[in-house]
Amino acid sequence: MSVLRVGSVLLWAVLAVSRARRSPTELEEVQEHINSARCTSRCLSLHMTQITAAFRHIQKEHRLSYYFINFLPFILQCLQPCEELWETRRVLPPKACEKQTECMTSREFLASLRSSRQGDCPPPQRATGFAAACVESCSSDQHCPSSRKCCFNGCGHTCQAPANLYKGVPLKPRREMSFTEDSEGHVKVGWVSKFNVSMEPVVYLLESRWNIGIHPSEDHASPWSAVAMTLSEEVLLTDLRPQRWYQFRVAAVNSQGSRGFTTPSKHYISSKDPSPPEPPMNIRVSNQTLNWAGLQLMSKVTERSSESGTTVAVLLNWEPPSEGDLLIRNYRITWMPLHVHTAHKHTHSLQANAQRLHKNKQKWPTNSHRQEQKKKESNTVLTAGAQNELWVQGLLPGTPYSLSVQSVAYWGQKRLKSHRAQLVFTTIPNADGDFSNELPSSSSSLSPSSPSYPSVSQPDSPVNPVPSEKLRLEAAAPHYHDNQLQVKVYWKWPHHFRPKHQDLYILRWHPHTCINNVTSKEKMTTVQGTHHTIKGLHFACKYQVSVALKAVPGSEAVAWVMTPTCSSISSRGKALACNTKERLPAGRKVVLRPEQLTADFHQLNGTLLSTFRWRMSQHALDPGAVEGFQFTWTLQSELNSDVDGPEHALISQTQTIASTQRSVTVRGLQAGSVYQLQLQVLTAGGRKGAAVSKTIHTPTINTSLL
């Protein structure tokens, strides 16, 4: 064991916590790391005599405690400011070094390094040209370019080239580096130093950078970042990630300074297999809307429509997972209504009881049958790129759903998926339940295996409703009669319950949401009986209707009525003067058509950035009639695709764009694939106007479209 080995052990003990810093490296940060290494070399040099004496004492007396008690505290005090600068890029405040001489001395040394650069000022008589001017052009080295110092020239201070720049500074190590990887994926990086005349300990500063891709690239590499500071000529790295091309460089530093870093090493890529990505975080439903026939403006990912034609669209949001071995290509979303699973379970239970009563010996449904049923009721979609939100549309109102999101990455031709991040939520109800603007409660969780669906059997749950002693309100389909839009509503009580007061009912209605932003006060009437026809309704509105016994206001029941658009009634042969806000003026033919849909592609950080542009037809005489655009892109085919099963379906995404916008940028389109584009005009009243379609071929990575 040598003195250098003792110093190396000490340095590792003090700076162990700062080995794996991975912050972006700028010029100032590199200089601070070099200053920290100079500070460390100074401390080890000052205490070299004590370290040598202590080492001999340990060998002679075999008493390691003597060394730690008498010398280690002073060395640690000296190294404390060096370590602080390495970790935080800040010099310790004076209070942190109170009554600690070694700490204060190191702090002052670091402060001098910040104000004075490496090298000496040349003699004043050697100054020539502007350097000899009798002016005060600087007051410290920081006021000069990085390669110069602020020096006195006999009558002033100017920026001059330093003398003795590398006096006493160790030589750069050789460029060649060795890489040795063990079975656990740990890599030992080694280098060879040139002969050094430095009498001080040499501290080595190792930095790395990397890029992701099939081939190594210095143009797309990350910034240089400090990896380790050591006294030895090798470093064991335990956190190199697969599928990344690494480069290293090393600098030899002592208290006098450094000659800089070696040229970058050859590229190195780890041989270990990458790990699957982590699941996304914080999955949540941020918005829910009811869609019905005539007012459905968006067409996103659809499941099935309910029998009444009313569906729920939910906006799903999540946060990307922590950085892993591979880039996230897209996300896999799967959802399934829980009531289907529960209803099947309940049906099987009733059938089993009946079979027992009749002494039949038919078997229960097998597990494979249940799994097959789940597959039929589940829906799966892949996002177009690594986007963090998705509209899921076509869900059933008032229904609990189990939803899971998985991160998807690719390693060559192999698809790697994360564990499922699960979310259980309930969609907003339709006319059969009270409506609330607040989102239903939901919960999310992470599951390393397939989701286990909770039982939904509470008495008050909308999944398994039980008869209650409450009034029920229902509405027929709205119809146009006597030159006005009207709807018949009727209400009833459960068969086993009859209220004491059956004389008068209070019926109220008002438009809750209208496509033309129509506002109207609540209307009310008193009805004797159990039905009434509401007249004078607005087109394309969602009405809230409520009824209650006049004598018992707490018996109120609520229903929702969706009225059709005026244009849909006109198409059935009715001669109507529809609102001009709902459709284009009939007196002239206005062609609202997008034209010249073009695509530009750029590569950004290994992903495809696509920009689509268009212009409107010159025949669009009324630009104000355009309320927006609906841009849809559908993946038709993918090169080297290994997607099978439900994921082999067409992947489609839609984005709604403002009427003043003439371009849209889409991130994450798959390279080397065929996409079908459609740009459609949304006119006043939510109607879909003319559309333009185009098929494009996305370029492969590292190529550009001319």
From TrEMBL:
- Where are stretches of biased composition, namely Low complexity? 440-461
Name residues in a coiled coil: none
A cellular component term, taken from the record's GO annotations:
extracellular region
Q: Domain named WAP: which ranges? A: 114-163
Gene3D superfamilies, per the entry: Elafin-like (4.10.75.10), Immunoglobulins (2.60.40.10)
Entry's SMART domains?
FN3, WAP
Fibronectin type-III domain location is: 173-274
Which top-rank group of organisms is this from?
Eukaryota
| Keyword line | Signal
What are the boundaries of the region Disordered? 357-378, 434-467
Q: In the record, what terms sit under GO molecular function?
A: peptidase inhibitor activity
State the signal peptide span.
Answer: 1-20
Q: Where is the composition biased (Basic and acidic residues)?
A: 369-378
Classification via PANTHER family: ANOSMIN, ANOSMIN 1B
Q: What is this protein called?
A: Anosmin 1b
